[in-house]
Amino acid sequence: MKITRNLNAVQSFVRFVMFVLAFFSFGLIILMTASTLGLMEGSLGSLVIFLGVGLNIFISIVVARMFFVLPEWERLVLLRVGKFVGVKGPGFFVIPPFIYSVASIIDTRIITQQVEATATLTQDNVPTKVTAAIEFRIESPERAVINVKDYLKSVVWLSTEALKNTIGSLDLKELLSNRDQIAMQLRTQIDNQADTYGINVIAVRITDIDTPPELIEELAVIARARRSAQAKRIQAEAEVEVANKIKEASNILVQTEGGFKLREIQNLSEISKEESSMIIIYPSDSYSGKNIAHAGVSLKSNTSKNSQNKTQNSRSDKLPPLDYSGEI
Fold first, then answer.
1. CATH code of the domain covering residue 132
2. Measured between alpha carbons, how far is 158 from 166 in angstroms, rounded to an integer?
3. Number of domains in the chain
4. Segments of 17-61 assigned E as strands
5. pTM of the entire structure?
6. Distance of CA 70 to CAs 9, 18, 146, 150, Å?
7. Are 102 and 66 within 8 A, CB to CB?
8. Domain range for 124
9. Do 279 and 271 contact (CB within 8 A), yes or no?
10. Exposed end of the chain (fewer CB within 10 Å): N or C?
């Protein structure tokens, strides 16, 4: 396959210099030969000059096109009488005309190509469009030129086929969650097939997965339900853990002599921190202690009622007297 390229400045300059030198050199030789043979006289001289100039231009062009200067990233596939003889480049070299011919000049730099798999069904029958980027480079210019007519189209076709086959063998969930793993599998599959063309696939990157909008909404609902269920499960696990700790604490208090008494005293200490609380401690089997506790509660309630009545009376004293002296 012949690749269209712009000649670099160095090669253009070298060919121009060689064309000028060849034109003047062969022109001088043709002129001297015609003068020696006496062909420059009469009407025959004009014809000889016209043919000599044309022949000189043709020979100069042929000589100038013998010289090649290739940059570091280009390789020239050379044929001799139609058969492959080698790969030239980079640098300066000369190829004789007529016997040798240039099959193609190949760019060996990394090439990035985008491929798409449109309207492809996943294993769970979801229509999906997947876009991927393929990075590859030519490792063997000989096979890239001789074994295939258009290696770029072949790589794109191989990549598209591999992408569609991979999509059809996976569920949408796997396709969305395992991009890196799928890309590695695609790279291996494409590289094995493209090796016949002398091409090395460096990387495959899945850039976009396009799914129907209604399916995206359904997936969002499912994701929210899963997160809610996970939150409830975590809360339940925390409650179970708290219950187990309380059970362990109860067992320790039972096994410790006076443990519950110490726990009661600790609870009373925490309750007493509140300013409005009144604590009366008495034995549980003491009748007199019980009466004292009831009396204390009644005294506190009466005190609070008296203070409320005083507050109401003070407010009523501050109200102005009503005036009934108006005429009816």
1. 3.30.479.30
2. 12
3. 3
4. none
5. 0.59
6. 10, 17, 21, 22
7. no
8. 111-211
9. yes
10. C
